[in-house]
Design a protein that fits this description.
The chain is globular. The chain folds into two domains: about 35 residues; about 170 residues, Glutaredoxin (3-Layer(aba) Sandwich), CATH 3.40.30. The protein has a five-stranded mixed β-sheet. By secondary structure, it is an alpha+beta fold. The protein is built from nine helices and five strands, in the order αββαβααααααββα. α3 runs antiparallel to α4, α3 runs parallel beside α6 and α3 packs across α7. It starts with a helix and ends with a helix.
Length: about 240
């Protein structure tokens, strides 16, 4: 009798653990697609659009830098304000590198989809980078600690950078770029990007200690690698 009770208890315990696992998995799936409390709920069944990188510099630059960042990420704002100006002035404008920016909205940031939406809509009018800078330099005014409804801020920034208000608002309110934003995040996950900001130079990923000196070092290494492979390609011809 005691043995039967013991077996019944084991079965019940196993069932409870299985139920907890199922509920936990469902909760994790929900959290993965929903920003922090008070943020916008993202439909997990939204179709996947096209991942798009926003280019700065010459597409023919010898070295390509790819960045994955979240507009609400404090470290990304720090990179944009402190490191990226040197990269632009000393590497992009000189034609040594091009930069390609992909949005990677993280689930703990409740206004990041709104900011990404604003950037995509600015791109439709040829001003992605102007909105990129505006969002990062004013992050403390629209992030999750500052406001639970960032729409007014985003539309104000559109006016600040002289976008056509009607076209911007139509794009922003339609949310037609949300599938593309989702695809951009999926591209990051496919590349095993697990934090922001992360950059890729010469096929190698970096996320720690990203400053100008580190970037310049890896750019120089990539230039040296390319210099070695170019003669080999010519010889093969």
């Amino acid at each position: 009798m005691a043995s039967a009770n013991k077996n019944a208890s084991k079965k019940q315990f196993t069932f409870v653990l299985a139920a907890i696992a199922v509920v936990g998995a469902a909760a994790l799936g929900y959290v993965a697609m929903r920003p922090a409390a008070g943020g916008e709920a993202i439909d997990p069944n939204m179709p996947l659009g096209t991942a798009q990188g926003f280019l700065m510099g010459s597409p023919d630059a010898p070295v390509k830098i790819v960045e994955f960042a979240d507009f609400e990420c404090p470290g990304c704002a720090q990179f944009a304000m402190l490191t990226e100006p040197d990269v632009r002035a000393r590497l992009v404008k000189t034609g040594i590198v091009s930069m390609q920016f992909y949005v990677f909205p993280l689930p703990m940031h409740k206004n990041t989809w709104s900011a990404s939406n604003a950037a995509y809509c600015a791109h439709e009018q040829g001003k992605f980078w102007e909105m990129h800078d505006r969002l990062f330099y004013t992050q403390d005014l629209w992030n999750s600690l500052a406001t639970s409804n960032p729409d007014k801020k985003m539309k104000g920034y559109a006016a600040d950078i002289a976008l056509d208000a009607g076209k911007f608002e139509e794009c922003y309110d339609s949310k037609r770029n949300y599938p593309n934003i989702k695809a951009s995040g999926a591209e990051a996950e496919k590349l095993l990007i697990d934090q922001t900001p992360s950059i890729i130079i010469g096929g190698k990923k970096y996320s720690e200690g990203i400053n100008y000196d580190m970037i310049k070092k890896h750019v120089d290494e990539e230039l040296a690698r390319l210099a070695k492979t170019e003669p080999a390609k010519k010889g093969a011809k």
